Automatic annotation (TrEMBL):
GO terms for molecular function: nucleic acid binding; voltage-gated potassium channel activity; zinc ion binding. It comes from Stentor coeruleus. PANTHER family: I[[H]] CHANNEL, ISOFORM E. It comes from the Eukaryota. GO terms for cellular component: HCN channel complex. GO terms for biological process: regulation of membrane depolarization; sodium ion transmembrane transport. InterPro entries: cNMP-bd_dom (IPR000595), cNMP-bd_dom_sf (IPR018490), K/Na_HCN_channel (IPR051413), RmlC-like_jellyroll (IPR014710), Znf_CCHC (IPR001878). Keywords: Membrane, Transmembrane, Transmembrane helix. SUPFAM superfamilies: cAMP-binding domain-like. This is Cyclic nucleotide-binding domain-containing protein. Coiled coil: none annotated. The chain crosses the membrane at residues 23-45, 95-113. CDD domains: CAP_ED. Pfam families: cNMP_binding.
Amino acid sequence: MRSLFFTIEDFWSNPTSVFLTRLLYFTIVFSLLCHFICCFMEYNFKISLIQVPDDWILYKHNSYDMYLRQIYIVILTMTSVGYESPKRSFNQNLLGIILVMCIESLIFAFTLGEIQSIVSKYTYYSNQTKDIIYQIKKVLDKKNIPKSLRYRIIRYVNYMREVEKENVGKETELLCMISQPLKLEIFTYTRAAYLENHAVFQNYSTGFIKYVGYFMKMQICSKGDLVLLEGEKGSSIYFIINGSVDIFSQTSKTIYKSLSKSKSFGEIGFFLGICRSASARCDSFTELVYLDKETFNRLLTDHPSEQIITKEIIKRAEKDLSMLGIKCYFCKKLTHIAKDCKKMLIKLQKDKIMEKAALKRNGGGKKVNLAFSIDKKFMRPLHESDLFRKYAIINVKGRNSHSPTQKKGSTLAKKAEKYVNKLQILMPVPGRKLRIVEDSDEENEKNEKFNSILPKSKRYIENFLKSRRRKSNTEVPQIVVNAD
């Protein structure tokens, strides 16, 4: 049975599944031991009934009740002080009880030890990770590392410990115990599979791809790490195992595409040796497998036929990038890359842009008073010539004013209307109208000869207004009587 469970564990790679399998194995073994002890105890009890008739009181006719009672006694013996009180007489029942108590004590000790080993194995990585993170936090506190960088470091350590828990990080150490042919077979299904699925590497032989896959290296990046930088000279090709990578423009920060699992990038720099045409940044924790140009060239020296194929690929790729299987991320064509795609370029219409700018500057076609839009601190300070004296009937001395336009006083107009009403009552003239005008002194003197029908001595209202105007030296409304 033990070998059977070991073969079952070989099918599991998840630690939780292995833990549950071991727990099931322990439960079955513990149940079988308890069952055998119960059967032995029941057999011993039936034999003791012949010698001790008093025990017939404890006898159960139902087999289920007998088995349940013996299970209760076995578990009680394991978890408490011991078995129920034996008889003082030294007989076969007493010897059986002593033997069973010893066996059950051993089973109880074995149970505790097995449970402790299972739990400790399951929590080994978590406890070790806590200790490592605690030590890292102490070092980061001493060095006064910023919180943002500290958070990224702790997240990266947690992820690396999870990878080691799944035996992915220790892949090289585990493969050291395997022979070279087995390693090549393993890498055929792990790393070399990415090369076989790529369009360019399908031109090479299968044996060479297996051999190259053995020399590929693994890299784990955290979120925000730059794998490639636009403009730098790179010589590696990358394949994504887990996670996602954003391909973007370093100048405009435009994301061309987000690559997911089993995708590749960096083919142009790997084969042609030119500068990177775009940048690559990890969007999450990402596991990558990459191959260096130097390692690849070193392997080609031992394979002349594959070296000829590589030279032909480079020769054709310099003329047309479709040889590398590279497609534009925007239009999905093989002739160019996303950086040179016409769909990415924006045609500037200068006439429309200038027209919109002019409309925006002029307020959308509305007239704008620039005097009010300019800030006061940029305006010319006031001068004495900008001020003028403003007089009124109420204020004879006058006051300074900045406004060049005078406003008509409403109070003065109301008083003039009252004078007109009184004049119509005192001196009713049929067929004539009185109106209020604002004339200067010169115009009044010219119009006196033509407009006035009364002698000067009889013009009471006009003489009164003239006397007031002389005192205030201002222009006041004048009452003029016009004939129809």
